[in-house]
Structure formats: structure tokens, C-alpha cells
Amino acid sequence: MLYLVALFLHVTGALMLAGAMAIEWLSLIGLRKAASVDRARESLSIYSKLSMVGGIGMFLILIPGIYMGVVAWPNAAWVAIGFVGIILIGAIGGIMNGRKMRTMKEDASGLQDMTPEFRKRTTDNSLVLSIRLRTMLLLGIVYMMTVKTAMAASVIVLIVSILLGFFPIGPRAGHERS
Questions:
Q1: 58-103 pLDDT, tens digit each
Q2: Is the dihedral of CA 123, 129, 135, 138 positive or negative?
Q3: Within 13 Å and on the Cβ side, how many CA atoms surround 60?
Q4: Tens digit of pLDDT for each residue in 9-37?
Q5: Which end of the chain is more exposed for a tag (fewer CB within 10 A), N or C?
Q6: Residue scoring higher pLDDT (36 or 49)
């Protein structure tokens, strides 16, 4: 019974994290398209609320996931590699986005008009790279958890997920279709 509760919490955490990441995509698109500081503030406000949802999601993934890994899957390679992947998701988000987005939100609060320097920061390609990497890592982890890959396959999935994160897939943020 405890395993089933842990599984429910784990899946709920994954849904929360995926939802937060989907909203982050939309927030970044809005930020990149913002024609005014007010529009940029709206996108930054949405983004700042995501850290709580994403953080709770990560907690609900990790704690029940560690429990299930120890209790039911102690020797499963996909558990260990999935753990590495989820830690990478948190690290990439924190390192590539955290400080930049906080600073941008603080700076936007003091601006009346969109300055060229602020515009440049709202279109920083590293923000889009970060969400692409984290999205591909999350998809790779879901694949490993679903298929229950062996060690070599798990490592390959993790590496391929990272490589795919470097390629723009789908419409690019901030660009209109012709």
C-alpha cells in the first residue's frame, strides 16, 4: 500500500514538473515577444511563480522515487540514471535561469520603457536552451521509467536527451510563423 501511495505522489510530481515546464515555455515566448516593459513584467511574474510549483514537483519526484528505488527497484540502472537526469534538470534550471530571471524581474520593476539592454536580456538564447535541455531530459527520464532500460541503454537515453536539447525542435520562441 505504501508503494502505491509513493507511486501516486511520484507521478503527481512528474505532472507538476511537466506542467511548470510547459508554462515556462509559454512565459519565455511571451517574454521574448514583449514589446513593452509591462508585458515583460507579466511574463516574468508568471515565471517567478513556477519555481514553487516546479520545486514541489521535484520534491514529489525525488522523495517517493528514492523510496520506490530502494524498496522495489534496488538494482535497476534506470533508477540511478533517472536520478542523475532529475538532478541535471534542477541544476540546469538553477544555473542557467535562476539568477538571470530574478535579476531581470528586479530590473523590470524599475523601468518605465523597454531599453535595448533589457530587450537583449529578454531574448537571451540561453533561457530557451535551458528549457529545451530540461524538456528533453524529462522526456528521456519518462522513457527510461516506462521501458525500464538496462544500464547501457539508460546512459544512451540520457546522452541522446541532452544532445536533442541542443537542437531547436518545433517553433522557436519569439519567432512568428510565415
A1: 999 999 999 999 999 999 999 999 999 999 999 999 999 888 988 8
A2: negative
A3: 19
A4: 999 999 999 999 999 999 999 999 999 99
A5: C
A6: 36
Q: What is the DSSP letter of 172?
A: P
Using an 8 Å Cβ cutoff, are 52 and 17 in contact?
no
DSSP state of 94: I
- Residue spans of the domains in the chain: they are 2-165
C-alpha cell at 47: 515565471
Count Cβ neighbours within 10 Å for each residue of 48-65 and write b for 16 or more, e otherwise: eebbebbeebbebbbebb
Distance from C-alpha of 174 to C-alpha of 118, rounded to nearest angstrom: 15
Number of Cα atoms under 13 Å in the Cβ half of residue 26: 9
Instruction: Tell me the C-alpha to C-alpha distance, in Å, between residue 8 and each of 67, 68, 84, 161.
Output: 12, 11, 21, 25
Determine the Cα–Cα distance for residues 148 and 143; give it in Å rounded to an integer. 8
Placement of cell 508554462 in the chain: 23
- Full-model pTM: 0.89
